Backbone:
C-alpha cells in the first residue's frame, strides 16, 4: 500500500474535470433544492439533454460547437418547462416523482435501438469536440507543480471546467442577492406567504427550475465535451445523488457549498476506492469478500449511506446554517 | 445521540452483512474452478438458429453474429452461424456466461420473438456442452401470424396481469403516503427484496416455490415493520421534515439497491420452477399457466385487501389516519400502530408483487426501481394516498403500457407510463379516485 500515491491521487482528484462536473451539477441543484426548495431528483436528465443536445446537433446537423452548446441550453430550458408545467403548481412530491421518472426514462430512450442512428444507442457518440480541442491555448508539455502535473489537454479541460464553476458561482451569488433571490428564498420558507404578497409563485419556481437546469446542462455538456464521448452510462439515476451528496455535504443554500462539497466528496471517493483496492490487492481483505471491480458498487452504497446520514444528522452540511434551511413540509 | 449511534451501527451492520454473506458464494465458485480445470475443460456452448418460413418449412439463419462473454464482461469469442444455422463457441472453463445475438445480422424479415432478449445468460458446469437457443420468427408473430384482434386480446391479458402485479406492489406505496405523507422512494427496493429472498429460498436452498414465496412475503412484512419501528418512526418523532425524509428515502433506496447488485450480481435470473411452460389456448387467447395463475392469485389477494380495508377495524383505522391524522389520534386510534401495520402489509404486498413479477420476467437487482417508476404513474393516476386508487391506476397503466406495443416499439413502454403521469398531473392532479384539495 503506497499511502503517498493514494493521497496524491485523492488530492489531484479534487481539481480534476469530473469534480468540476459535479460541482456544476450541484450548483444547479442548489438553486433548485437549496434556495427554492424544489425537490429535483432528476438533475441527471438536464445533464443528459445538454450532453446529447451538443453531441447530436454537432454530429447530425454539422453546426459549430458553440451553436451546439446553445442548442444544449435550449434543450434544458424546454425540459424544465416540460417538467415544471405539470408539477410546480402541486405539492413538492410531484416534482420529485416526475423528475426521477424522467431521468431514468430519458436514459432508456437514449439507449433504445430505434434511435440508434441518432444517439448511438449504448455505444454512445464521439467525434464532436474538435472545436474544443482546437481552442486549446496550451502547447504540448506538462503544467502544474509537484504531483499536480497535467498534460496540455488535461490542463485545458481543468481550466475550462473550473472557469465554468466560477461563472456559475458568480451567477448564483448575483441572483441570490437580487430581489429575485429574496423572493425565491421566501418561497422555500413559506410559499403561501409569498403568494399572499401578490407574487406569482409558479413563475418564480419555473424560472428557478430553468436556471438550475441550465447550469445542470452545462455540467453535462462540459462532461462530454472534455471527455470526447458521450455514453448513456454517464447518465444513470445515481449521478443525481452524487450531486445531492456534494450539495448537502458542502452546505445547501450556501454559495460555495456545492463546490467545496464536490471537492471533498470526490477526494473521499477516490481515497476510499484506492484504499479498498489496495487492501484487496495486498490481501488484507480477502478477494473472496470483495473483488476489485466491485469496489465501484461499494462506492455507490457509501453515497447512499452518506446521503442518509447527512440528512439525518447534519442536514446543513459543513458550512450550512441550520436556521436558514428549515426544510419542512410543503 | 443514542439513536444516532444506533442508526450508524445498523447501517454499518447492513454493509458488513452484505460483504460477509457474499463470501461463501464466491468461495464456492473458487473451489469449483480448479475441479473444472482438472477434468480437462472442453466446455462448449452451441446453438441452432432456426425459424419457420411462411411456407411452413424450417429455415436456418446463416451469418448471424453471436458473441459470448464471461460474467465480468470479457469477450470469449464472436462467431457467425453457418449455413445450417449452427454456431459453437469453446469456453475457457465452467462458470457463468452471456450469449448475445446481433439482431441486425439476422436475415431479412426475421426477428427475435422477444426483441428485448438479445442476451441470454447461462451457467456452465465443468466438462459439459450446452445448447442456447434464440427464438426467431419470420415476420410479425411468425407461425401464428396473429391478427390484430388476437394480438389485442393477448396484450390486454398481459396488461391486466402486469397491472395487477403493479397494483399489488403499489398499494403499500400509496398507503404509506396516505398515513405518513411520505413518498417512499425506496419502495421499489421492497419489491426487489421480496423477489430476491424468494430466489434464495427457491434456488439457492432449493425449497419449492409454494414454501419459498409465503416465507419470503412474511420476512418482507417483518422487515417492513422493523424498518418503520427502528428507522422511520424515530425520524418522525424527532420532527424530521417530509422533504428531508424523501431525500433520506432515496438515499436508503440507493444504498439497498447497490447492496442487491453486490449480492445478487447484475445478472437476471429466474426461479427454479414454473419457467418452462406450454401455453394454453382459449380461442384467440394464448396464455402460459403461470400467468393465468398470477392473475387469479392477484385478484384473490387484492379482493382480500379491499375487504380488509373496508370491513376490518384496522382497515377503518387506516382510512381514518389517511383522512385526518390528528382527528384519528384524538378519537383514540393508536396512529403509530396503524402506520406500523401499513408498513408491514405494504412491504408484504410489495414482496408478493416482486415474486409474481420475477416469475413472469426474471429477478434482477433493479427490477423494483424500474417498477417504481411505473408504480408512481399508477399511484398518481389513481390518486396518491388511496389503496383503491393505486389499484385502479396501476391496472390502467399496466394495460396501457402493454397495449402501446401494438403501435410503438416495446422499448418505449416506460415512456407511455411517463406520458400518462404527466397528462394526469395536467388534467386532474388529484387522480381518478383522489379528493380534490386546494393546490397552487
Residues:
Amino acid at each position: 500500500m503506497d499511502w503517498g500515491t493514494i493521497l496524491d491521487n485523492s488530492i489531484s482528484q479534487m481539481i480534476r474535470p469530473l469534480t468540476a462536473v459535479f460541482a456544476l451539477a450541484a450548483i444547479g441543484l442548489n438553486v433548485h433544492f437549496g434556495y427554492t426548495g424544489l425537490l429535483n431528483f432528476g438533475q441527471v436528465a438536464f445533464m443528459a439533454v445538454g450532453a446529447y443536445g451538443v453531441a447530436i446537433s454537432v454530429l447530425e446537423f454539422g453546426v459549430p460547437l458553440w451553436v451546439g452548446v446553445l442548442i444544449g441550453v435550449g434543450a434544458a430550458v424546454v425540459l424544465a418547462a416540460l417538467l415544471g408545467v405539470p408539477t410546480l403548481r402541486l405539492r413538492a412530491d410531484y416534482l420529485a416523482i416526475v423528475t426521477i421518472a424522467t431521468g431514468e426514462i430519458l436514459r432508456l430512450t437514449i439507449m433504445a435501438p430505434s434511435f440508434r442512428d441518432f444517439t448511438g444507442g449504448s455505444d454512445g457518440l464521439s467525434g464532436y469536440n474538435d472545436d474544443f480541442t482546437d481552442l486549446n491555448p496550451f502547447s504540448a508539455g506538462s503544467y502544474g507543480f509537484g504531483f499536480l502535473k497535467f498534460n496540455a489537454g488535461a490542463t485545458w479541460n481543468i481550466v475550462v471546467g473550473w472557469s465554468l464553476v466560477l461563472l456559475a458561482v458568480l451567477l448564483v451569488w448575483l441572483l441570490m442577492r437580487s430581489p429575485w433571490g429574496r423572493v425565491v428564498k421566501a418561497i422555500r420558507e413559506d410559499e403561501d406567504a409569498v403568494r399572499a404578497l401578490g407574487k406569482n409563485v409558479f413563475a418564480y419556481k419555473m424560472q428557478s427550475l430553468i436556471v438550475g437546469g441550465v447550469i445542470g446542462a452545462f455540467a453535462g455538456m462540459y462532461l462530454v465535451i472534455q471527455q470526447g464521448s458521450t455514453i448513456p452510462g454517464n447518465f444513470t439515476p445515481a449521478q443525481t445523488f452524487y450531486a445531492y451528496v456534494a450539495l448537502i455535504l458542502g452546505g445547501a443554500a450556501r454559495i460555495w457549498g456545492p463546490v467545496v462539497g464536490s471537492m471533498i466528496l470526490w477526494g473521499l471517493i477516490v481515497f476510499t476506492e484506492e484504499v479498498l483496492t489496495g487492501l484487496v490487492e495486498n490481501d488484507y481483505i480477502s478477494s473472496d469478500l470483495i473483488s476489485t471491480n466491485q469496489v465501484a458498487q461499494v462506492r455507490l452504497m457509501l453515497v447512499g449511506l452518506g446521503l442518509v446520514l447527512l440528512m439525518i444528522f447534519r442536514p446543513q452540511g459543513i458550512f450550512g446554517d441550520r436556521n436558514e434551511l428549515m426544510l419542512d413540509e410543503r | 445521540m443514542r439513536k444516532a449511534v444506533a442508526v450508524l451501527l445498523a447501517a454499518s451492520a447492513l454493509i458488513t452483512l452484505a460483504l460477509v454473506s457474499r463470501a461463501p458464494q464466491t468461495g464456492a465458485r473458487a473451489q469449483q474452478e480448479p475441479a473444472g480445470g482438472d477434468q480437462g475443460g472442453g466446455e462448449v456452448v452451441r446453438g441452432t438458429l432456426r425459424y419457420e418460413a411462411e411456407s411452413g418449412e424450417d429455415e436456418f439463419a446463416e451469418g448471424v453474429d453471436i458473441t459470448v462473454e464471461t460474467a465480468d464482461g470479457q469477450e470469449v469469442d464472436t462467431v457467425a452461424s453457418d449455413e445450417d444455422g449452427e454456431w459453437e463457441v469453446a469456453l475457457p472453463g465452467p462458470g457463468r456466461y452471456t450469449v448475445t445475438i446481433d439482431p441486425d445480422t439476422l436475415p431479412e424479415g426475421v426477428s427475435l420473438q422477444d426483441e428485448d432478449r438479445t442476451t441470454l445468460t447461462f451457467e456452465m458446469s465443468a466438462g459439459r456442452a450446452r445448447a442456447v437457443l434464440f427464438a426467431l420468427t419470420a415476420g410479425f408473430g411468425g407461425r401464428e401470424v396473429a391478427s390484430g384482434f388476437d394480438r389485442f386480446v393477448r396484450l390486454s391479458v398481459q396488461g391486466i396481469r402486469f397491472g395487477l402485479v403493479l397494483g399489488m406492489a403499489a398499494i403499500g406505496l400509496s398507503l404509506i403516503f396516505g398515513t405518513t405523507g411520505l413518498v417512499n422512494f425506496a419502495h421499489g427496493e421492497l419489491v426487489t427484496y421480496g423477489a430476491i429472498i424468494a430466489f434464495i429460498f427457491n434456488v439457492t436452498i432449493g425449497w419449492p416455490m409454494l414454501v419459498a414465496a409465503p416465507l419470503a412475503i412474511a420476512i418482507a412484512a417483518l422487515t417492513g415493520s422493523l424498518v418503520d419501528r427502528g428507522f422511520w418512526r424515530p425520524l418522525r418523532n424527532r420532527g424530521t421534515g417530509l422533504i428531508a425524509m424523501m431525500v433520506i428515502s432515496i438515499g436508503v433506496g440507493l444504498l439497498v439497491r447497490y447492496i442487491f447488485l453486490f449480492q445478487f450480481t447484475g445478472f437476471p435470473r429466474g426461479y427454479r420452477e414454473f419457467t418452462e411452460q406450454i401455453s394454453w389456448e382459449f380461442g384467440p387467447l394464448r396464455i402460459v399457466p403461470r400467468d393465468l395463475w398470477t392473475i387469479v392469485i392477484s385478484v384473490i389477494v387484492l379482493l382480500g385487501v379491499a375487504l380488509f380495508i373496508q370491513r376490518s377495524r384496522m382497515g377503518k383505522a387506516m382510512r381514518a389516519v389517511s383522512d385526518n391524522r390528528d382527528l384519528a389520534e384524538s378519537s383514540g386510534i393508536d396512529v403509530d400502530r396503524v402506520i406500523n401495520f401499513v408498513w408491514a402489509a405494504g412491504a408484504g404486498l410489495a414482496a408478493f408483487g416482486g415474486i409474481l413479477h420475477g416469475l413472469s420476467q426474471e429477478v434482477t437487482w433493479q427490477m423494483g426501481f424500474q417498477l417504481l417508476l411505473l408504480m408512481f404513474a399508477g399511484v398518481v393516476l389513481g390518486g396518491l394516498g388511496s389503496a383503491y386508487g393505486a389499484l385502479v391506476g396501476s391496472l390502467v397503466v399496466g394495460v396501457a403500457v402493454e397495449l402501446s406495443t401494438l403501435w410503438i416499439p416495446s422499448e418505449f413502454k416506460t415512456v407511455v407510463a411517463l406520458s400518462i403521469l404527466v397528462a394526469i398531473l395536467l388534467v386532474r392532479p388529484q387522480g381518478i379516485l383522489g379528493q380534490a384539495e386546494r393546490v397552487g
